[in-house]
Design brief:
A hairpin with a 6-residue loop joins β4 and β5. This protein has a six-stranded mixed beta sheet. Strands 1-3-8-7 form a four-stranded antiparallel beta sheet, with no helix packed on it. The chain contains one helix and ten strands. The chain is mainly beta and 115 residues long. The protein is globular.
Amino acid sequence: QVQLVESGGGLVQAGGSLRLSCAASGSIFSLNAMGWYRQAPGKERELVAGITITGSINYADSVKGRFTISRDNTKNTVYLQMNSLKPEDTAVYYCNTIPWRRQYWGQGTQVTVSS
């Protein structure tokens, strides 16, 4: 069974940085575009960054210029470098394919940005 395991979250002050990692079992990365999603309290889950198999990248307007997504297919890992963090970035962050698949949702990693 393919699983995605997110890590790297934590508590950081506004303006700080964090790097999230998502490791997968199986060969999921070689066959799919991958994305980082987030869900803040009381809000719907949203896609914040995506990267295709060939490396094309897209970001939500809210994170452009601050977040960087990358992938290492040899390690079956996708990363999200988050800089200049804002309190509104506070959320649980998840990785999944694009489009997402129900069976790939993991526990996520909590990111909390204090003002």
